Amino acid sequence: MNKMEKKDKIYVAGHRGLVGSAIVRSLKRQGYENIIVRTHKELELTDQAAVRAFFEEEQPEIVVLAAAKVGGINANNTAPADFAYDNMQMQCNVIKCSHDYHVKKLLFLGSTCIYPRMAPQPIPESALLTGPLEETNEAYAIAKIAGLEMCRFFKRQYGDDFISCMPTNLYGPYDNYDLSGSHVMPAMIRKFHEAKISGAPSVELWGTGNPLREFLYVDDMADACVYLLEHYSGEQHVNIGTGRELTIRQLAELVKRTVGYEGEIVWNKNMPDGTPRKLTDVSKLHEIGWMHKTELEEGVKLAYDWFRENVKDARL
After folding, report:
1. What is the pTM of this model?
2. % helix, strand, coil for the chain, step of 5
């Protein structure tokens, strides 16, 4: 295992997103100051020549690949080719350059949507590629599977210290609150907040409210990522989550209560639910030595406080 040092030059791809910004915060909290970042305008990760020129110039020693084209059910359903192509292209460029320019450690971030729609619950890492995927995010999932398998193949063929992790559903500062592409938690926070401000009598949410989901506060996820960079070099990807779940209906009630909205919730049962249940088996992560710290009620309050204070700058 290549040991991380505080002076290492660390490139965090996707530093402005929910995941990448949290990883930058976590690295800085833990004394890693030599962090390099590029905005989307400064470096287009789907451009192979541009990525190669960046690696040639900067020579990063550690790479965290948190950049991705992401979105909820609606976005994935309407633009599957874009989700597949853009994510595969980014991954291929960064992973290959990390090998060619002798990066000593790379962490690739996947998503639990890589697992089969009807995977055993809680989902162990071994469930990968054992059944059909959920159709509503199939393109994104296939791209992410390709990325983590590529890390495994570079490790196997060349001995590169490339590792992968699979975070569960994340939420927190710098989340995407654009309702056309947001995930369930930020969508609920925005909808309830705006309904409270406008005095709307009801809020419409998609589906039945019955699916079960697990949620992890993004700063906990970031701390887990740094922990894995420091302590893990295995070929197997590692789930990052809490190992706890609740229904979307229960989540809606929690967010509604946190926001202080007093109207009704209307469930639009003509809209899709997505995967019926998605809970990660986090026993491997616990064995490596890490557990989450932020429970859901506290995390939702932190997320709502951030949204309220940053609504002018949030991705709406």
Report:
1. 0.92
2. 45, 15, 40
